[in-house]
């Protein structure tokens, strides 16, 4: 009986090591083939002989994004959707531009941690820990400062200066995903039933109707 238990333990350890090893690439790169079907780990690989320098290239992060929305920020993503060579590498980044007093509203990245570096200006940033504490951890960042947002936690940034600001965010996923809290709750399609939101937010139905009208997809 003891030898059987030992055998099971050894087999379990072997499979754990094998599964862990399978997470690493078995080739130099896996440039995504846009014609393939998306898999949990990304798109299928393009024929290596058809890979070109442009598959690993992105230009324009030196240019401030045009801000036209009411929140006062613009995100320029550089994920596997923009750079096929990022496929399966587990990294990506984005440039965020902020108008004076503009915000990047509370949101989460369900598949990545983030490290944000301020390029220009002054940003007030923060994230909120999970239930039951819901502690807000916040700090004011200056040019050259960096801050980490743990995976899945709600976080935000606000430009607290009278001039434009910019930041560069790096992610631990080729496709970090983003869930904007207000838009997800009040702009869901189809709508979340208003009585659910009334009870959740402890407000009148008229308030819910107003908030949903603000986030309707045109």
Automatic annotation (TrEMBL):
Q: What does this protein do?
A: May play a role in plant defense. Probably has no oxalate oxidase activity even if the active site is conserved.
Query: Which pairs of Cys residues are joined through disulfide bonds in the record?
Result: 30-45
Signal peptide location: 1-20
Q: Which InterPro entries match?
A: Cupin_1, Germin, Germin_Mn-BS, RmlC-like_jellyroll, RmlC_Cupin_sf
| This protein's name | Germin-like protein
Domain (Cupin type-1) ranges: 59-209
Origin organism of this chain?
Parasponia andersonii
> In Gene Ontology terms, what is one molecular function of this protein?
manganese ion binding
The keyword Secreted is annotated on this UniProt entry: yes
**Gene Ontology CC terms, in alphabetical order:** apoplast
The listed locations are: Secreted, Extracellular space, Apoplast
Q: Which UniProt keywords apply?
A: Apoplast, Disulfide bond, Glycoprotein, Manganese, Metal-binding, Secreted, Signal
Q: Does the keyword Metal-binding apply?
A: yes
* Residues that hold Mn(2+) according to the record: 107, 109, 114, 155
- Provide the binding site for oxalate: 104, 109, 114
Q: Which family does it belong to?
A: Belongs to the germin family.
Under SUPFAM superfamilies, the record lists: RmlC-like cupins
């Amino acid at each position: 009986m003891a030898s059987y238990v030992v055998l099971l333990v050894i087999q379990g350890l072997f499979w754990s090591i094998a599964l862990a090893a399978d997470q690493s690439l078995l080739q130099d790169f896996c440039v995504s083939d846009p014609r393939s079907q998306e898999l949990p780990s990304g798109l299928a690989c393009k024929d290596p002989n058809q890979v070109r320098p442009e598959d690993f290239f992105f230009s324009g992060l030196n240019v401030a994004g045009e801000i036209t929305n009411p929140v006062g920020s613009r995100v320029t993503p550089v994920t596997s959707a923009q750079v096929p060579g990022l496929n399966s590498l587990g990294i990506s980044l984005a440039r965020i531009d902020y108008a004076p007093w503009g915000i990047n509203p509370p949101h989460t990245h369900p598949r990545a941690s983030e490290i944000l570096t301020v390029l220009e200006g002054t940003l007030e940033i923060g994230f909120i820990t999970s239930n039951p504490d819901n502690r807000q951890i916040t700090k004011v960042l200056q040019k050259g400062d960096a801050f980490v947002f743990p995976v899945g936690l709600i976080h935000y940034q606000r430009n607290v200066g009278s001039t434009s600001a910019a930041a560069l965010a790096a992610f631990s996923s080729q496709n970090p995903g983003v869930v904007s809290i207000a838009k997800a709750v009040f702009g869901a399609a189809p709508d979340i039933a208003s009585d659910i939101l009334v009870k959740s937010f402890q407000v009148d139905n008229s308030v819910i109707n107003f908030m949903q009208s603000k986030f309707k997809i045109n």
